[in-house]
Amino acid sequence: MRHRASLILGAVLVGLMAAAGLVSLAWTPWPLAEIDVLNKLAAPSAAHPLGTDGLGRDLLSRLMAGAANSLSVAAGAVLLGGGIGTGLGLLASAWGGRVEEALMRLCDLSFAFPALLFAIMLAAAFGPSLLNTGLAIAFINVPIFARVARGAANQVWVRDFVLAGRAAGRGRAAISRDHIVPNIAAPLIVQATIEIATAILAEAALSYLGLGAQPPAASWGRMLAEAQTLLWVAPMQAVWPGLCITAAVLGFGLLGDGLRDWADPRLVRRQA
Amino acid sequence: MTRFLIRRAAGFVLTLLAVSVVVFAVMSMLPGDPALSILGIEASPEALAAMRSQLGLDAPAPARYAAWALGALKGDFGTSYAFRVPVGGLIAERLPLTLSLALGAMAVTLVLAPGLGMAAAARHGGPGDWAVMVLSQIGIAVPAFWMSILLILLFAVRLGWLPSGGFPGWDQPLAALRALVLPVIALALVQSAVLARVTRSAALEVMRLDFVRTARATGLPRRRILWRHVLPNALIPIVTIIGMQFAAIVTGTVVIESVFSLPGLGRLLLQSIANRDLITVQALVLLFAAIVVTANFLVDLAYVAIDPRLTGRQS
């Protein structure tokens, strides 16, 4: 029962954030970059539901655009890194032996680097931008997915239908594509959901440090950095972006938890 | 046992070595010419070449790596391009602050989280359990730097009890401690949420086992069962997470020091990145990675201390 509650609450939060982001691509209550210095740090009103920021820009509009940036960077990075990692994991599992050993040792090594530190280093190396932040986060995801995919794939390779496929003379690549991937999709999707939550946190932290989104792009992390200079004047400026980050991370986390419980075959059997 | 320790220690040294190679390789591949950033764009080609050879940049990569790694072993990380002083000195000045932050946050986490987790497990399904689970779920989702800003908002802006940032220096111990309170709490709260959850689920696993039922049947007090019988048997996953958390806290200091303008290693890292001071960045990344690898090594040793049977099973 609990997993259903997580699943629903997670889906609602993610849905809300995704909807806000998608809508912002076509429409925002105010133009994103419209500066109105006479009306800066305005209190919430009918015209500006959450008020305006230090340059008089509509806060709600910028939060919506922040959702689009944050979610697309996080999801894109996890898809890219996860895709590459899954490919490597499948390769390791299909070939075994030295290939597997070498790839897995490389993964072990990469875990010695704290992820955020590595992202900071990469973001700094390639210059601060949202795209490079995404690439850095993607890079971090490669070994995570390689490990999960290889672990799950190894369990499938010993099953009878795979042995039958091999006996029938099908190649490792074909078996991986047609039989392994569908059978390891569930843990990968769960992992991806959870990693998107982590990626949103990473993007926010990097943008806060000035290594991610650059002005005038709207980003929750960056908005928090700007709000911190205005804490004494306009405290609420520092509340909304943080709430958005928390809601998005919570949403993907709950969704991942719910999906995992839902996909767990042991649980399914108990209910049947 | 001895063989296990030797194997683990060898693995530790090899990992550190591999980490140093990777750090060096990544930093060498980066665009940018240190000589150019020191001398400026108006420098003549001859001056640039002279500076490169002075920095040892004209040697082949393996030789540069060997010189750097051997120096690092002796604590000599070269001379900062930006500050023109030894990198080792820059690090030594800032290490105490970052270590106090990290160890302080770890200590607060260890005081808060296991108790909460055990309390939740003891009242499994009750309102207390539910409250701990909801709070920890939210705590995991809150970014530490936003938590910091909220703490500043409450304790510095509203109440005025604590400073909103900055560091007075260790020669004013009381003021220094006051400056560390909020950053330590910000780091610790998020990690406590994680650890409380893990403690709870590890304890719940153990509480299902027969020996706990036996202990209950013999009439041992609940408290004694929980702390003397359940917790010791639930320690393996808890220690695993603590090791990962120390790594997370250490990297977390990079962001938190920036929020509170604390002059620690994290600030130095960000400054060095901004200054393109690659040799300092290289030393700092190596240092942070070394701390993480050391934490993992200590966790491995802790496993054996907790459960000596594990020596045989680890490869």
Automatic annotation (TrEMBL), chain A:
It is found in: Cell membrane. The keyword Transmembrane helix applies. GO terms for cellular component: plasma membrane. It is a multi-pass membrane protein. The chain crosses the membrane at residues 71-94, 106-124, 130-149, 230-255. Gene3D superfamilies: MetI-like. Signal peptide: none annotated. PANTHER family: OLIGOPEPTIDE TRANSPORT SYSTEM PERMEASE PROTEIN APPC (PTHR43386), PEPTIDE ABC TRANSPORTER PERMEASE PROTEIN (PTHR43386:SF25). This is Peptide/nickel transport system permease protein. It comes from Pseudoroseicyclus aestuarii.
Automatic annotation (TrEMBL), chain B:
Keywords: Cell membrane, Membrane, Transmembrane, Transmembrane helix, Transport. InterPro entries: BPD_transp_1_N, MetI-like, MetI-like_sf. The chain crosses the membrane at residues 12-30, 99-122, 134-157, 177-198, 230-259, 279-306. Residues 95-299 form the ABC transmembrane type-1 domain. It is a multi-pass membrane protein. GO terms for cellular component: plasma membrane. It is found in: Cell membrane. CDD domains: TM_PBP2. PANTHER family: DIPEPTIDE TRANSPORT SYSTEM PERMEASE PROTEIN DPPB-RELATED. This is Peptide/nickel transport system permease protein.
